[in-house]
């Protein structure tokens, strides 16, 4: 069990927070977060940063510079080892076919916007509408909502039990009243 948890955490570290796939040519940026070289370069390009101007880290919003991209060879080795183990990265091809697409960008809906309570794609996350919002990988959001739903169901079950107890007590009182009325007649 502990091994499975450790492997899961290792897989999570190897997944790029932008594309949600195993990192390709991982680089560390000034704040210490890691991304695919292509993903973080595209992020900078979309922000209109062609030179070494500062940009915000997509994860922590810290100010970083393109010159601060450092190849993370250790992480690249870990990613390669995970691939060789055949653990899969993010959703596999068989899951990608059934994954809904964003109606605006035709990208897979891999993220969940907490404020809007809706699935979004990685392009939507960078839009002005969602940028200030709290966004999670959709699997993590599903787990959070599953836990909330289970708690709600537990509370509802307790309320149903209370109603049943109250109903039973009322039935007993009604029977006692009927029995008392019969004796008084």
Automatic annotation (TrEMBL):
<feature type="domain" description="B box-type">
    <location>
        <begin position="97"/>
        <end position="138"/>
    </location>
</feature>
<dbReference type="InterPro" id="IPR001841">
    <property type="entry name" value="Znf_RING"/>
</dbReference>
<dbReference type="InterPro" id="IPR013083">
    <property type="entry name" value="Znf_RING/FYVE/PHD"/>
</dbReference>
<keyword id="KW-0862">Zinc</keyword>
<dbReference type="Pfam" id="PF15227">
    <property type="entry name" value="zf-C3HC4_4"/>
</dbReference>
<keyword id="KW-0479">Metal-binding</keyword>
<protein>
    <submittedName>
        <fullName>Uncharacterized protein</fullName>
    </submittedName>
</protein>
<dbReference type="InterPro" id="IPR000315">
    <property type="entry name" value="Znf_B-box"/>
</dbReference>
<dbReference type="InterPro" id="IPR017907">
    <property type="entry name" value="Znf_RING_CS"/>
</dbReference>
<dbReference type="InterPro" id="IPR050143">
    <property type="entry name" value="TRIM/RBCC"/>
</dbReference>
<keyword id="KW-0863">Zinc-finger</keyword>
<dbReference type="Pfam" id="PF00643">
    <property type="entry name" value="zf-B_box"/>
</dbReference>
<dbReference type="GO" id="GO:0008270">
    <property type="term" value="F:zinc ion binding"/>
</dbReference>
<feature type="domain" description="RING-type">
    <location>
        <begin position="16"/>
        <end position="61"/>
    </location>
</feature>
